[in-house]
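Input structure tokens:
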């Protein structure tokens, strides 16, 4: 009973929040004639972890690229901290405190781990503060301290993901956009990285919007979730409630055998329950 009340309270807060940290309204983005996302509306409240779940090609990366200004939307608006950032220059969006950890990490392979972190702090001229921030991120990811002098290209996939997240942290952002942190990683490493993402959120108060195919991990780590299918949001709720929905169990968590074998029936679905 109390758990249900807690969920309801969270749900009410989401509706009552007058100014979410990030707000997308009816955003549409396309690559030439291909509409990748259509009418996407979502909100991320300050201090929470929000997740967008979706399978291959659903439009997850496109949402994040549109928020961070890499792609200009055809329609709709994006507000960050109450200000319109739609189609702004990506560098200007970074300066406002929004960092994007891209799909596939994109670390600077020929720079050392340490120098990659310095690149994340390029907006700061306070060398003492930068040195402190580097120690802080090494606290989250001690393996990076051991590898500080090595070229980032020599790190494992998991370590590169850690470095990409750390590089974003170096700018002390308000909001981090995280594109499929689990991509190509073992379940064990994925779990480790998600645990640290949650720690970063709880300890530093950094708001996080992540997109994932790994629904299990994302739903466990996040507060609020959106389900994206073919460029449209088809469902949203607190992650606590999403985990209990039949369609989520069937199509994303693989909890009903007939749903995860053979034909991917969800493609034909019209309504979500
Ligand atoms: N550069 C591009 N040119 C043309 N079409 C693209 C381009 N990038 C993505 N698309 C198309 O836009 C749609 C959404 O792609 P997007 O990369 O956003 O999906 P995603 O959910 O991130 O997928 P994945 O899980 O594979 O990363 C897909 O149909 C994809 O084929
Ligand atoms: Mg993607």
């Amino acid at each position: 009973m109390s758990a249900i009340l807690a969920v309801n309270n969270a749900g009410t807060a989401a509706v009552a929040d007058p100014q979410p940290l990030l707000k997308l309204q009816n955003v549409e983005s396309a690559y030439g004639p291909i509409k990748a996302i259509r009418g996407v509306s979502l909100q991320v409240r300050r201090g929470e972890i929000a997740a967008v779940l979706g399978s291959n090609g659903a439009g997850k990366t496109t949402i994040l690229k549109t928020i961070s200004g890499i792609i200009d939307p055809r329609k709709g608006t994006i507000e960050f901290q109450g200000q319109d950032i739609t189609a702004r220059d990506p560098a200007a969006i970074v300066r406002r405190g929004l960092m994007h950890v891209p799909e596939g990490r994109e670390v600077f392979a020929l720079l050392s781990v340490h120098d990659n972190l310095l690149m994340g702090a390029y907006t700061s001229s306070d060398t003492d503060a930068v040195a402190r921030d580097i120690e802080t991120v090494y606290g989250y990811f001690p393996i990076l301290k051991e590898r500080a002098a090595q070229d980032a290209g020599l790190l494992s996939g998991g370590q590169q993901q850690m470095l990409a997240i750390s590089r974003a942290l170096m700018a002390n952002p308000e909001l981090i956009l995280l594109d499929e942190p689990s991509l190509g990683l073992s379940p064990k490493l994925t779990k480790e990285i998600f645990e640290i993402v949650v720690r970063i959120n709880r300890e530093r108060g950094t708001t996080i919007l992540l997109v994932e195919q790994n629904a299990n991990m994302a739903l466990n780590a996040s507060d609020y979730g959106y389900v994206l299918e073919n460029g449209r949001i088809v469902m949203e709720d607190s992650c606590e409630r999403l985990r209990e929905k039949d369609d989520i169990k069937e199509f994303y968590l693989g909890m009903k055998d007939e749903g995860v074998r053979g034909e991917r029936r969800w493609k034909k679905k019209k309504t979500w329950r």
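The CA atoms of residues 251 and 266 lie 7 Å apart. The two ends are 22 Å apart (CA to CA).
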